[in-house]
Amino acid sequence: MNNLESILTENRVFQPNPEFAAHARIGSLDAYNALVAEAQNDYEGFWARQAREFLTWDTPFTTILDDSNAPHYRWFTDGKLNASVNCIDRHLPAKAQKVAIIAEADDGSVREITYQQLHDEVAKLANGIKSLGVTKGDRVIIYMPMIPEASIAMLACARIGAIHSVVFGGFSAEALRDRINDTGARLVITADGGMRGGRTVPLKSAVDKALEAGCASVEKVVVFERLGNAALNAGTDVAWSALIADKSTTCDPEMVEAEHPLFLLYTSGSTGKPKGVQHATGGFLVNAALTNAWVFDLNDDDVYWCTADVGWITGHSYVTYGPLALGVTQVMFEGIPSYPDGGRFWQMIERHKVSVFYTAPTAIRALMKLGDDVPAKSDLSSLRLLGTVGEPINPEAWMWYHRVIGSERCPIADTWWQTETGAHMIAPLPGAIATKPGSCTRPLPGIIADIVDDEGNPVGHNQGGNLVIKKPWPSMIRTIWGDDARFQRSYFPEKLKGYYLAGDSARRDDDGYFWIMGRIDDVLNVSGHRLGTMEIESALVAHPLVAEAAVVGKPHDIKGESIVAFVVCKGDRPEGDAADAMVKTLRDWVAEQIGPIAKPDDIRFGDNLPKTRSGKIMRRLLRGIAIGELPQGDVSTLENPAILEQLLGK
Ligand code: ATP
Ligand code: MG
After folding, report:
1. pTM
2. Is 643 within a domain?
3. Residue 293 near residue 326 (C-beta atoms within 8 A)
4. Pocket test for ligand 1, best of 263, 265, 267 (most atoms within 8 A of CB)
5. Is position 631 within any domain?
6. Digit-coded pLDDT (tens) for 582-603
7. In terms of residue numbers, what domain contains 612?
8. For the chain, how many structural domains are there in total?
9. In CATH, what number is assigned to the domain containing residue 622?
């Protein structure tokens, strides 16, 4: 991957807001540099200090990093702790009456759950699943709507040392069955249904279908009565309410070794078959708690809202575990941003006085498409920090977020990380690091990120290459469940000198800022120039009529590859002459913005783009469409299959 070229020109810089910095946990560049230096001078000592400061250990650890079985690194191995104690018990009794979760349902009704109530509900459910025979190390599938009971189920598993694997509630029975069988789960925790956008989501019937199709390991199914219409199968099914009815609100936590798996979670499947990522209790919690404190600067009086579903890693680190480990109040939302109208997010920020808000570029681009007057109807003055994750955020979407949602006052934390990294890796500390639209800025203290060629040698400034992390960190993936060989091959390929290979391409600018350029798999090769997808897409999105864009390569006799762009316009999809005119406009626009080399040879318009259920553009499917074929490969996590036909013109 030598000579990946950068064609993006983006020079805007935003200094940390001095008012914000004055109160921030890490409020200056000097403070950031001091932490970086501390990690450089004594790497293990640095992480040991964080692990002691951010977590409560039942048995303190004496070993820090164990690399005897690298790349299966182990952290804090002789320490013992319990994740639910760190998220709940240690905040009691001081925060017994503090609201832990403000839950807004799809229909707008609101429920508040205090830390004491959270404790009691978790204990009762933990006792309940224990009574079903679940013990330490057993796997439990959680297939739930975005309601507090999803977090309660996760924490109940953690309380008794069971390993949870949350499956996004929008996945089909087949996807669910695959995950049940891969994990060998004994128990499934689900609900009779959920509500999204005014429609019911039939969770229980999907579980029934999965079990009928064959899930030999499953013994019991616990059903939360969200809709009140659960039809229970004799023998396997147990109603949540019945299970906890006579259970105690005391449940002695199982203190587990730091390396005990806390959960398994499957990746989004953007680049291939989803991988079952295994995370360890101690290390995961260290980075989850630390990044919520450093990057989101969460404090006791914040109202925090992360819009991610608990079915994704973001919902693990930034809904369930991280914020609760810090004892803050958070909003949890069952529904979708467009229901009952496109102002829902902004109305909720006003209603709950949200101060820290974290969402994905796909949502930002979709809401931006609706125009500035939608958010203008809500009072967003409670906001003090905005975050984004999931995909590269195009500079124009970043600017809209900054200007329209953040009133040019709120710092923006563009957080680069992955299911495998467990927590933020590269992101601005908002009181310390100036931001640039489209850049995730600089690695967090203790994270040794670099950009290297295929042999592991560093590339020059502004040259693209493989994004790697050179040293192990506490919340890193331990293995792919049941597949050590795939783990080693995917993340620690032989030639790379033992570095963790992220699978993304990136460049670093003269100020040491990182810019994600796309997936390694998606790099284009045009007339000998190797280009990332993100930069061409960003030029397209910068056009006032474009809402979203995805760029892929198509084999070309002379050039090697030609550039095909799939574009979603603001307003209606152009057709006929209007489409031809728009193609010309956009080709000229890209040539003007970044030069003729990046000019798409072919531009097609769609109402949407193929996306994973976590909202990421699946470029690998568009490569098939570009050559006129219905794409091959794993499409189990594709959100909107019908769009493939539209883009193919069938
Ligand atoms: P799979 O690994 O199955 O292909 P996936 O990589 O989409 O799926 P996730 O772990 O959910 O699964 O996503 C991590 C990826 O998301 C990163 O590797 C990166 O490509 C992208 N990403 C996340 N945050 C950012 C960000 N702030 N900027 C750029 N890219 C990001
Ligand atoms: Mg990935």
Report:
1. 0.97
2. yes
3. yes
4. 267
5. yes
6. 999 999 999 999 889 999 999 9
7. 527-648
8. 1
9. 3.30.300.30
